[in-house]
Amino acid sequence: GGWDHTIRLWDLNSGSLKTTLNGSKAVHKVHCNHLNGLVVSASSDRLVRVWDCRRSEGSVVQCCLSAHQGWVVGVHWAPGHQHQLVSASYDHTLRTWDTRSSRVPLYTLASHQGRALCVDWSVPNTIASGGVDNMLRTFNFH
Questions:
Q1: How many Å apart are CA 16 and CA 8, to the nearest integer?
Q2: pTM for this structure?
């Protein structure tokens, strides 16, 4: 993702550009789900977008998740899940989502006393985030 409002997907074997996805604002973070081929992006328009790059016709945006009140700066798919992800925002929150019911987040976590800057969900049942409050926070789900 980049400040030019695009996401560029590259073939790592050949080093060639495979496709360019166009957003409406700067793209701060992208994460690929290797289980289903979907890409999630965080953007300064306060939206989390889920892209289906396998589509050849129509919109490649599968859904837009909108609940954040500030820039979305971090996204990460849940490990081992095709539909669950987490987002981090300048609105001081993390939000967990299920893309099958994208109208509202599953959970809203008050994560930092200031902007959340990053989020990671690489470890099953544990979300980690960092923020401008110089704190690393972890949340456990069982």
A1: 10
A2: 0.89
